[in-house]
Amino acid sequence: MIVVMKPSATEAQIDAVVARLADRHLETRVLRGAERPVIAVIGKVSLDPREFETLPGVAECTRISRPYKLASREWKAEPTVVNVGGYAIGGPQLVVMAGPCSVESREQLLEAAAACHAAGAHILRGGAFKPRTSPYAFQGKGEEGLQLLAEARALHGMPIVTEVVTAEHVPLVAKYSDIVQIGARNMQNFELLKAVSEIDRPVLLKRGISATIEELLMAAEYILSGGNPHVMLCERGIRTYETATRNTLDLSAVPVLRALTHLPVIVDPSHGTGHRPYVAPMAMAAVAAGADGIMIEVHPNPEVALSDGPQSLYPHMLERLLRDVEVVAPVVGRHLPRPTRPTRRAHAEASATHSTQTDAPAAAPETLTAPTNTVAYQGQAGAFSEKAARQFFGPDASLLPNPSFRSVFEAVARGEAAYAVLPIENSLTGSIHENYDLLLEHDLHIVGELKLRIVHTLIGQPGANLDDVDTVYAHPQAAGQCEAFLRKRGWRVVNVYDTAGSVAHVKALGDARAAGIAGPHVAALYRMETLAESIEDNPSNFTRFMVLARDPAPRADANKSTLVFRAENRPGGLLAVLDAIAKAGLNMVRLESRPIHGTPWQYMFYVDLEGIVDDAAVDALRLTAPFVRVLGAYHSAV
Fold this sequence. Notes:
By secondary structure, this protein is of the alpha/beta class. The protein folds into 4 domains: 2-62, 2-Layer Sandwich (Alpha-Beta Plaits); 82-338, TIM Barrel (Alpha-Beta Barrel), CATH 3.20.20.70; 457-535, Periplasmic binding protein-like II (D-Maltodextrin-Binding Protein, domain 2, 3-Layer(aba) Sandwich); 554-638, 2-Layer Sandwich (Alpha-Beta Plaits). The protein has 21 helices and 29 strands. The protein has an 8-stranded parallel β-barrel with strand order 7-8-9-10-11-12-13-14, surrounded by 7 helices. Strands 15, 16, 17, 18, 19 and 25 form a 6-stranded mixed sheet that branches. The chain has a 5-stranded mixed sheet with strand order 22-21-23-20-24.
C-alpha cells in the first residue's frame, strides 16, 4: 500500500502517519517526490485504506498490486536517476560503459581505458573477480585487479564498474569501485543481494540467464528493501533454444521494464550476442528501444583476450559505434555527454605509483560546473528548457526557473546564475528571434550547445478524453509545431509562454474541456491524463539550445563559433563579408538576419561557423564590416 500525502502536508503529519503504521508493526519508506510526499508500506498489508485517508495531510491510499513494491512505478512514478562521477544514469543522458571483460595486466587495462575514454565512453568496466563456467579458466586478478582499475580511473577520470561474486568480498569491492555489479549467475544469490543492499554504492543488477522480468525485479526489491536505492537493471541476454548467438538479447525487456519500474535500464549487447559483428547493431537497437545506457566489451587485442575475446570490440569499432549513437540518441530524447577529464592531482597520484592500495575511490572527475552553480532557464518544472539544462549540466546543478527569456539573460548578467540554457532554433518552426535580439543586447558568451528532440503530448484532466476537449493552452512554438494536429480538430488555441506551465494552468482550471501541450513526462509530473501522444507535425522535431555565461570559456574540444556582424549598406556589402569568411577558411553553416531596432531596413547578421574564429580572422572581417562581435566558441555534437 502507498499513502499519498497532500502537497501541503507538514512533516508532523507525515511523521504521524509513519508512527501509526509502526504501531501496526509495519515498515515504511518515505519518498519526497517532485509534487508531494508518498509513504510506502512494506510487506504484506491487510489494512483498510479508508482508515488512513481520513488522517490530516493524507490525499489518498492505494494498494500496490505488484509483488515488488519499491521497484514499481506505482510507488515511484518519476524515473530514478543514479549519479555516478557526474553522469546521470536514468535521465536524458545516455551513458556508455566500456572496457575489457577482465583485468589481465596493467598494460592491457590502461591501454583499453585510454582507448575507451578517447572514443567517448564514460564509465570503465572490467572484472577483477571472474566467475567462470570452467574451474580451469582465468578467474581474475582479485584485489590487484581492483587496484589497477582505481589507477585507470585516476588517469582518465572514468568511474569504474566491476563485479562482486561473494558476500564476503562486498566491502573490498565497494572500497575501490564506483558501481558494484551483480552478475547474471548471482542474480538470485539472496545473501549477496542483502550484502550490497547495505553499502553506499550504486548496484548494477544483471538479469539471470533464465530469469523472468518479474524475477529480476524481485531481486532488485531485495536491494531496495535493504536500504540501497541506487539500483540499475541490466539486460544481457537470456538462454533460449537459439544457437546462432551466445544468448538471446531480449530488447523487448527494455520498454517492459520502463513501464513497470522507475529504475534505470542498461543493455549489454556483448554478452547478449557473443559475436563481435552483432554488438554494434544491437547496441543501436538498444538505444532506440529506450535504454538508459549500454555496456560494451572492448579489448586492445581481442584475439589474445583471456576471456570473451570473440565478443569484444576493437577500439576503433567502439569509436565508430559511438559516433553513430551520437546521431541516433537525440531521436529518442537522449544525449551522449562529453567524457569528463581527470583532475591534475589524481593524474599525478596515479603516475607516481600504481601499486599502492588506497582506502577510498579516487576523487570524482572535474565537471563543467561545480554542483553549487546555478543554471537559469525559462519556464517551470517540466519545461523542455529544464530538460535541456539537466541534460547538459547533470543532476547536481541547481536550476533557477524564470518567467521570460529576458529574465534568464538578466539573471546571468547580474550574477544570480552562472549559466543560462535557452532555445535558439527549432527544426520545424525556425529561429527564436527574441533570443537572437537578446544576445546582441547583453554581454554574454555562448559556451556550449545541445540539440534536444521535442515530442509533444496533449494533456488533460484525469479521466478526461479527447472528445471532451474544445480549448488548448500552448506555447506559440509548441502550437506551431503541432499545427496540423490542431487544425484538423478546430480547437480554440490560447497562447501561454511555458510548455509545462500550460499543463499547470489546465490543472488549476479543473475543466475537462481544457488541455495543454507539453512533453510526455509532464503528465506524470502534474498527475494529469495523457490524451494524445506524439502530436507534433513531423517526428524530426528538434530544438537547438545555447548555453550562456558571463565569461568566455573556450574548450580544447571547441569546434564551432558564432558571431554577429553588420554589413555596409552598399552593393556587394554582404558579399564582401561572406568572401572574407571564406578566405579565412571558415565554413559557414548558418546565416540569420535580424532587423536593427530603431534603424528601419538595416540588419544584423548572425553566423554559425565550423571551427574557431581567431583574432586574424576577426581583423580581416573588420576590414569589410563596420561591426563584428564574436559571441562564443564552443563544442557542438554532430
